[in-house]
Structure formats: C-alpha cells, structure tokens
Write a structure and sequence with these properties.
heterodimer, A: 347 residues, mainly alpha, 2 strands, B: 369 residues, alpha+beta, Cytochrome-c3 Hydrogenase, chain B, 15 helices, 8 strands, globular
Chain lengths: 347, 369
C-alpha cells in the first residue's frame, strides 16, 4: 500500500507539474508579446480570444498542421533528432524545480514537498541537462545543410564553453554557505528574508548574465541572430519540428528563471504573509501561497528577460566570448575566494 | 590552412535592405573577400523617362528613393527649371527648403530605427516610426499620398499649402528635439551599441574621397562637404546651420552625424517657418506648365544636384527641344556609397557586415534605378 501510494504521488506530481509547465510555457509567449508590445507603443496580440489570450493555442495548432519540410541533402537522423534534443533537457529540468516545500500547507499526501524529484544532487542534475541543450542546436545547424544554420550552430558551440564556466562557478559560493546540493536545502537556508541576492550579489549578477546566454535570449541571441543569420540554427525547420525548438526555449526560460528564484530570491518563501506572534515566526497561512510566491518571483525574472529584449542591441560574438572569459570568469572566481574567506568557520 | 566558405548574403536576406546581393568569402566568421551584385531591382527608370513628358517624369523620381520622394521631386524639377531658365518666387523656394528638411528628418528617423533593428535592438524602430507618422500625415495633407508624393511640379508645386500645415509643422518641430533625445537614450551611450559600432566599417578620409562617397557617409569620415553649404541652392544660404562632421569614419560616427543632422534640420525648419514670406509659390506663367498640357524644353543639357538625405542626388538632362528628354542620367548616392562597401568589410565579422550595410543607409530603389 505504501509503495502504491508513493508511486501515485509521484505520478500525480509529474502530471501536474508537467501539464502546468507546458501550459505556462505556451502562455509565456503571450505575456512576452503583450509586455514587449506595451514597451513598443503597440497593443500586441488581441484578435484571438479576449486580449488575444488564445493566440498561443492558435499558433500551436497552426504549427501542428503545417507541413514539416525536410530540406534536400540534410542528414536525416540528426535532423530529426535535433528538435527532440532541444526539448528534452528543458522538460527534464522541470523535475527538480521546487515549487513549494514541505513546510508549506500541502498536506494532501502527508508532508510531501512540491517537487517532482527531490534529489540530493539537484544542482548537478540541472547543470547536466542544461548543458545538453546546445547539442540540439549544434545537431540542427550541422544537419540542415545550410551555411547560415551551420554558423548559428558554431556560434552556440563557441558560446556554451564561454558561459558554462562562470555559470557553474557563480553557484559555488552558495554551495559553500549551504553545504548541500539539494535545492530544497538551498531554499530553506535563505528563509523568508536572508536571500542570497544580497548575501551573494556578485554571484547573482554573474548567474543572471549566464542564464540569459544559456537560454539564447537577447542580447545574447547570437545563434539565432535574426538580422545576421536569418534564423540561425533552425532556419531550415518548419511546422512541428520548429515548434519543438520554440517550446524548448520557453520551457527553459521558465525553468532557468525559477532556478534564479531558488538560488537567489528565497524560492517559495514569501515575506510578510502572516506573523505568528505566539511562536515569533513567519508562517504561510493560506495553502499554496508558497507556489504563488514562487511563480511571482520567477515571472519577475521572466519579465526582466523581456525587458532586456526590448531595450538592448545584440552583442557581437567575439565580444560576448571575451566578456565571458575576461569579466565574468574572474568575477566568479573572486566571489568564490571572498565567500570562502568570509565563511572560514563553516569549512 | 583554413577552408574558405562562400556565403550568399541576399538577395533574400533580412538585412540587406531589399535585394542587394553580397557574396562573402568567409574564414570562420571573418570576411576575407566580398563581391556585390546589384541590379536586381532595375526598372529602367532612365530609359522610361525618355518616352515620358517632363511633368510625368516627376512620378518616376518618387520611385527612386521611396523614403525621400520629396527631395527627389525637388532635385528633378529644379534641374528642369534650370534648363527652362525659370525661377519661382521666394515663398515657393522657402516651401521647398522646408519640405526638403522635413524629408531629411523622415529619412534620418528611419535610418536610426532600422539601423538599431539591424543591430538587434527592436524598440527604436517603433519610436522613430511613430514620430515619422506625424510628418507623413502632414505630407498627406498637402499631397494626398503618404510615400510617393509627386507634389512638386516644374514651375512650382501642385497646389497652395494650407496654413494648417505650417501650424502643425511648428507643433511637430517644437517637439522634435525631445523625440531625438528619446532615441538617443536607448542607443547613443549604450555599451553594447558602442561596442558594436566604434571601429567598425572604418572609411578613411582618402578612401572616402577616392570612392566619391557623398552625404553623411562622407561627412562622418571628416570631410566637411555639404552641397547646402558648398553650392547653396534654394534658401540654404539664408539659413543658419552647421555641417555635421565625424572624426573616425566608423559606423558610430555615421550614426552620430545623422543624429546631428536631425538637430540641424530642426533649426532649419524653425527658420523657414519664421521667415516664410507671403505671396505666390508658383512661377508667373505656371499655367504653361500645368498637367495635362505637355510643354517643350529648349535644346541643351544641364546637371543639377542637391544634398539629399542620403547624399548628392544629381540629374543630368539632355534635351533635344521636344516634349520628352533625350536622355536622363541619374547620379544616385546609394549606388556610389555601396561601391565602397567591399573595402569597408574586409576582415570584419558577419555582424559587422550587417552593421556596415545598414550604416550606409542605402535604398535599393535608388541603387538599381
């Protein structure tokens, strides 16, 4: 009975989290179009449904029914594998997103944290999967038999070795303070107001810049640079194959923003919910308020992403590389040393 | 020895401003050689003009550089007027000066927006197009069209301009400096924008003069040559303005020169509105030249050029005394400026090629004629 209940809980968690994430990934495109439209003195989508809310659905349907053109002379196996390789890492990374902890009032199945896989190597799992996503791009660019796609793929390959190192190094400071790779431990170490964004400001900055590059978003959207490489690595993709790339990008956007929330913004902990005078602690009175806080914080990061997209020109490929190696990497190493010196008692 | 790759940029590339085809030899992403193919938008405007009457040709000049139709019209009709030996009253000249400067504002606004777009910044284009609409509405008020105006005619203009036009232009002009400041907040001091522009696509003074570059591209290289000052036409000798000159001849200077010119145009528009005389704006015997009656032009030849927003636009007209010109040769700035492109992108990256093409501010309608 215990085993069946355990499996049932896991299945429910997987289905809920997967479904909800796919849903919000789709509607993130709507949010983006509305926000950027507002920043650009436009209305944004408004024709399909109220406030254009059905637009993601319409887009998805259209792409689903479109012919998926396969270019002549492409490498068929890698060509078909590439969109899958772009989507799977994003979906796998959802598994470790802690939407809310066991401290929250979710007591449907006992004290279970709202996370699909509460594994002790959470951070390593995230890094492993997010580093796999450039393979999708490289495969797509190489197999398409198109020079623009190839250049896009080469750019993403060159970028991934530049930003991955500061990306990984920026987290080490937090690991030294917390002493655990488990994401729930990291969130709990921050509590309601000891957020790492002001205990580790340099790491937060380096991490944020790295995740913008990681998700291929402007100003670091070099591998799909529209005005230079037409559409970069997915130039030759159409229909559902293209939409897999698109979906992967938006799921990754959400996952990586929620990682910023976990590492630096205190995860599901929300300030000023209700104050328990007797026990002298902050408590979350309403069930599920933790999830709400988590989504609000993550979407603030998503908003910053869109803000960047609306305001910045694209950085050049060689400038991006020298920025990663000469600025971000020394900064993150410096941060590690400073954190180590300040936390000598914990080591 | 790295293998070279030939890549075909255009004619269907998103940032070659139409149908320019640039063939790039690449080593990695570095350009080691380049060639250009033009003529994909060739419509034979010069040949078409030979079978049309002088007033009809005005409509062809609209379609040269479709962003700056007004200045094309003015240059052409002034060339024909020079051949005919007629002069138009001061009010007409002031109106032409005013509208030429408004057209320059439109062109430079479009440049700033599209240039930023080619560099990956997607918002400035909406700012500049929003403000450009105001001038397009004003032009629509006087000519009925929003892009191909055909407003100026040999001997004057199609019809008198209403007072409302001047009032609204004044309102617009008072706000123009604020608009320019708004564009600059997103671009001029932006670290990424500067990094993408400074030292990119450098044109030395000597190279610029040897290639015969004109307009803002020439001035950005430090050559203070502007036909409005060098050979004043219309009312420019009565206007108080400065020539915008750059120092290094890179993309950033070309951008700054255009921003400076926007501000100078604002000054000229204000002065035109202030000094605007009353009276007629067409020449005395304008009836003689009115459509649909074709008129004959005495035999002879003439070259006349003005400082269009993109550079020196010139019309060389040979007349054999009939209703149509014997030959018209159009000297278009986009064509001449594009010819210098190969020397500017040697050793650059693909991203720089895009920036350099955009910084030349070319329009293919004028390039291919």
């Amino acid at each position: 009975m215990e085993v069946i209940l355990g499996i049932a809980i896991i299945l429910i968690k997987i289905l809920t989290i997967f479904g909800v994430t796919m849903f919000i990934a789709g509607w993130t495109t709507w949010v983006e179009r509305k926000i950027i439209g507002d920043m650009q003195f436009r209305v944004g989508v408004e024709r399909t449904g109220p406030y254009g809310l059905m637009q993601p659905m319409a887009d998805g349907l259209k792409l689903f029914f479109k012919e998926s053109i396969v270019p002549d002379g492409c490498d068929r196996v890698t060509y078909e594998l590439a969109p899958v390789l772009a989507l799977v890492p994003a979906i796998m990374s959802i598994a470790i997103v802690p939407f809310a902890g066991s401290a929250d009032s979710f007591k449907i199945f006992g004290q279970t944290p709202f996370i699909a896989a509460n594994i002790n190597i959470g951070i390593l799992f995230l890094f492993a999967w997010s580093s796999l996503s450039p393979y999708g791009m490289i495969f797509a660019g190489w197999s398409s038999n198109n020079k623009y796609s190839l250049l896009g793929a080469l750019r993403s390959a060159a970028l991934v070795i530049s930003y991955e190192i500061p990306f990984g190094f920026s987290i080490i400071g937090i690991l030294m303070i917390v002493g655990s790779l488990n994401l729930i431990d990291i969130v709990n170490a921050q509590g309601s107001y000891h957020w790492f964004i002001y205990r580790q400001p340099v790491a937060a900055l380096v991490f944020f810049i790295s995740i913008v590059a990681e998700t291929n978003r402007p100003p670091f959207d070099l591998s799909e640079a529209e005005s230079e490489l037409v559409a970069g690595y997915f130039t030759e993709y159409a229909g559902m194959r293209f939409s897999l790339f698109f979906l992967g990008e938006y799921i990754m956007l959400f996952v990586i923003s929620s990682m910023f929330t976990v590492f630096f913004l205190g995860g599901w902990h929300g300030p000023f919910i209700s104050y328990d005078v007797v026990n002298n602690t902050w408590v979350q009175a309403i069930p599920g308020i933790g999830i709400l806080w988590f989504v609000i914080k993550s979407y603030f990061i998503v908003f910053v992403y869109m803000w960047l997209r609306a305001s910045l020109p694209r950085i050049r490929y060689d400038q991006m590389m020298s920025f990663c190696w000469k600025v971000l990497l020394p900064l993150s190493i410096l941060n590690i040393f400073t954190t180590a010196l300040l936390n000598l008692d914990k080591l | 020895m790295p293998r070279k790759m030939t890549i075909n940029m255009g004619p269907q590339h998103p940032s070659t401003h139409g149908v320019l085809r640039v063939i790039l030899e690449l080593e990695g992403e570095n350009v080691v050689g380049s060639d250009m193919e033009v003529g994909l938008l060739h419509r034979g405007i010069e040949k078409l003009a030979e079978s049309m009457t002088y007033q009809q040709i005005v409509t062809l000049t609209d379609r040269l550089d479709y962003v700056t139709s007004m200045t094309n019209n003015i240059t052409y009709v002034m060339a024909v007027e020079k051949l005919l030996g007629i002069e138009i009253p001061p009010r007409g000249e002031y109106i032409r000066t005013l509208i030429a400067e408004m057209q320059r504002v439109v062109n430079h606004m479009m440049f700033v927006g599209i240039y930023a777009m080619d560099l990956g910044a997607i918002t400035p284009v909406f700012q500049t197009f929003r403000d450009r609409e105001i001038i397009l509405d004003l032009f629509e008020m006087i000519s009925g069209a929003r892009l191909t105006y055909s407003f100026f005619r040999v001997g004057g203009m199609r019809e008198e301009i209403p007072q409302e036009f001047f009032d609204k232009t004044k309102d617009f002009n008072d706000k123009l400096l604020g608009m320019i400041a708004e564009y600059e907040t997103l671009l001029t001091r932006n670290r990424i924008f500067r990094a993408r522009n400074i030292g990119v696509g450098v044109v030395s003074k000597e190279y610029a003069i040897n290639c015969g570059l004109t307009g803002p591209v020439l001035r950005a290289s430090g050559v203070p040559y502007d036909l409005r000052k060098a050979k004043p036409y219309l009312m420019y000798d009565k206007m108080d303005f400065e020539i915008a000159v750059g120092d290094n001849g890179d993309c950033y200077d070309r951008y700054l020169v255009r921003i400076k010119e926007l501000k100078e145009s604002q000054k000229i528009i204000a002065q035109c509105l202030e000094q605007m005389p009353s009276g007629a704006s067409n020449c005395e015997d304008y009836k003689k030249y009115k459509i649909p009656k074709p008129f004959k032009v005495p035999a002879g030849e003439v070259y006349f050029s003005t400082e269009c927003p993109k550079g020196e636009l010139g019309f060389y007209i040979i007349s054999d005394g009939t209703k149509s010109p014997y030959r018209i040769k159009i000297n278009s700035p986009s064509y001449i400026n594009t010819a210098a492109l190969s020397g500017m992108i040697e050793g650059a990256l693909i991203a720089d090629v895009v920036a350099t093409i955009a910084s030349l501010d070319i329009v293919l309608g004028e390039l291919d004629k």
